[in-house]
Amino acid sequence: MSFLDLTALTRSYGPVRALAGIDLAVEAGTRTAIVGPSGCGKTTLLRLIAGFEAPDSGRIVLDGQTMADGAAFVPAHKRGIGLVAQDGALFPHLSIADNIGFGMARGEAGRAERVAELAYIVGLDKAILKRRPHELSGGQQQRVALARAMACKPRLMLLDEPFSALDTGLRSSMRKAVAELLENAGITTILVTHDQAEALSFADQVAVMREGAFSQVGTPRDLYLRPKNRMVAEFLGDAIVIPARIAGGFAQCSLGRIAVDSADRRDVARIMLRPEQVLLKRTSSEGMSGTPDMLFAEVTEMEFAGAVCTVAVRLLNNPDPPDAAAIGSTPLILKKPGIEAPAVGEVVRVSVTGTAHVLE
């Protein structure tokens, strides 16, 4: 049995079915990210785990103890679960010290020392403990919320999009700091987010959610490189999906002959490449007189964005695409380092590295 087991969870609000049978196993000390579009049921699932709501059916077992199963239901305050909400949900009338120590008894021995220790652990200066929440930055408020959740020594930490209100630089550093903090404390964590990069970089396990159910659950690397279907592929990042014929471990498609991760023979299939697998090398119109199997393209658009730029290229010599829907006349959209990005109008040689994934 895992540290947290969710079995066949369902939850409806009138005619709207928020959860349609959720199964998930979370191992002790790990980090799991639940990612999906707005309205797919992520926050509802978190509320059921926390104990704020009861499922219509299904079972929740935490560390061997049944939290919810039919008539059996353990209320939130008895579950030993910490929660950090999107906005921090700090008490505006309390000092930072009182916010952090809110779940601790007033007369508890060493309370002040414990509050100061928690502030230090989350990277807050002791001097701010006398301030009020409105006197802190967004990042500092999120650290206070995390310290408050940790004050109760939770068995499980739930993070409901806690970094979404932060600017890009702070968001990245805060995410890394929180991940290290929770790992060092040995706290099992579930993060709910709609940010794909956040889920992939934060978690040991990622669950992609859609319309109240999980489309796929696995490690970040497996889901990114071997998504189950096109929805998962495109939700977790930019994807190039191409029709192809497959035989002998290779696909014949509009990008040429590419190795694939399937030995099955399929006359009609779709393969997926991540944009970083498509390489561009500057050449010229004269340089297109190379070997017949070389593939060339023209840069039609280039959007400069500093370190990473978006480049659109139109293929110039398709090697026998398998059907009329092939991408020959549709630009390929790629992400390239800004310092190497070719200019509009340039001719480039196109090649593919690595293995393409065959979608179901």
TrEMBL record:
<dbReference type="Pfam" id="PF00005">
    <property type="entry name" value="ABC_tran"/>
</dbReference>
<dbReference type="GO" id="GO:0005524">
    <property type="term" value="F:ATP binding"/>
</dbReference>
<keyword id="KW-0408">Iron</keyword>
<keyword id="KW-0067">ATP-binding</keyword>
<keyword id="KW-0547">Nucleotide-binding</keyword>
<dbReference type="InterPro" id="IPR027417">
    <property type="entry name" value="P-loop_NTPase"/>
</dbReference>
<keyword id="KW-1003">Cell membrane</keyword>
<dbReference type="InterPro" id="IPR003439">
    <property type="entry name" value="ABC_transporter-like_ATP-bd"/>
</dbReference>
<keyword id="KW-0813">Transport</keyword>
<dbReference type="InterPro" id="IPR050093">
    <property type="entry name" value="ABC_SmlMolc_Importer"/>
</dbReference>
<comment type="similarity">
    <text>Belongs to the ABC transporter superfamily.</text>
</comment>
<keyword id="KW-0406">Ion transport</keyword>
<keyword id="KW-0410">Iron transport</keyword>
<dbReference type="InterPro" id="IPR015853">
    <property type="entry name" value="ABC_transpr_FbpC"/>
</dbReference>
<feature type="domain" description="ABC transporter">
    <location>
        <begin position="4"/>
        <end position="236"/>
    </location>
</feature>
<dbReference type="InterPro" id="IPR003593">
    <property type="entry name" value="AAA+_ATPase"/>
</dbReference>
<keyword id="KW-0472">Membrane</keyword>
<dbReference type="InterPro" id="IPR017871">
    <property type="entry name" value="ABC_transporter-like_CS"/>
</dbReference>
<protein>
    <submittedName>
        <fullName>ABC transporter ATP-binding protein</fullName>
    </submittedName>
</protein>
